[in-house]
Amino acid sequence: MPAFNVNIGDPIFIGAFFGFLISLPVSLFLAFWLSAVKKRAAVVIGAFVGALLGLLILLGWAGTLIYDQPLPGANGGSVFFGSLFFCTVLGLSGGILTDLLIARKSRRDYLRATAQEHNG
User: Fold this and answer.
1) What is the pLDDT of residues 44-70, one digit of tens each?
2) Distance of alpha carbon 16 from its chain centroid, rounded?
3) Measured between alpha carbons, how far is 90 from 94 in angstroms, rounded to an integer?
4) How far apart are CA 64 and CA 7, in angstroms?
5) CA distances from 108 to 19, 73, 96, 111 (A)
6) pTM, 2 dp
């Protein structure tokens, strides 16, 4: 039965949360550094939302966020490393998608000047 509860003392939650915390500096810095738009704060927020989504997905899959019992064989260490990599990847993906959406909305700020525009 679906439960939707979070047990803070659970080793799976602790491992997932600390993996999420360690993944934040990596994903936020990379999203900021790789960004090509002028509003880099929006890209960093998109990266944070992506990493947070990764944490919620991992807690729903391996932890007790949705079901009463955690995933069989899941422990704090495995969930920590899974959260570290999964939240980093989803955070960076969220930042890149936000970067692409902002660049698409304000396209003329990011077009490259062609040779004819300079000669013409």
Assistant:
1) 999 999 999 999 999 999 988 888 888
2) 13
3) 6
4) 8
5) 39, 52, 19, 5
6) 0.84
